[in-house]
């Protein structure tokens, strides 16, 4: 399911900022929440990832 894919990406890329420095736990959590919300909205709008 898409949640697992997001979690996998967050595990590999989430701990780091664009400049390579560590991202805080709060930043990682908020980023994941924003991505989840965006995906839910796309589903509500009828966008299909196929």
Specify the structural class: mainly alpha
Total helices: the number is 2
Q: Which regions contain 5 or more consecutive residues with pLDDT less than 50? A: none
Major sheet description: none
What is Rg? Answer: 12 Å
Principal-axis shape equals elongated
Q: Would you tell me the overall average pLDDT?
A: 90
N→C terminal distance: 13 Å
Number of strand elements: 0
Strand content: under 5%
Helical percentage: 55-70%
Q: Write the H/E string, N to C.
A: HH
Task: Based on the model shown, name its key terms.
50 residues; mainly alpha
Write a concise synopsis of the structure shown.
The chain has 50 residues and is mostly helical.
Could you walk me through the main structural features you see in this protein, from its secondary elements to its overall organization?
By secondary structure, the protein is mainly alpha-helical. Helix content is about 65%, strand content about 0%. The chain has two helices and no strands. The protein has helices at about 1-15, 25-45. Helix 1 (about 1-15) runs antiparallel to helix 2 (about 25-45). The mean pLDDT is about 90.
């Amino acid at each position: 399911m898409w949640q697992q894919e997001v979690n996998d990406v967050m595990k590999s890329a989430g701990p780091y900022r664009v400049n390579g420095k560590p991202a805080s736990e709060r930043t990682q959590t908020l980023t994941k929440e924003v991505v989840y919300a965006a995906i839910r909205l796309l589903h509500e709008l009828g966008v299909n990832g196929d």
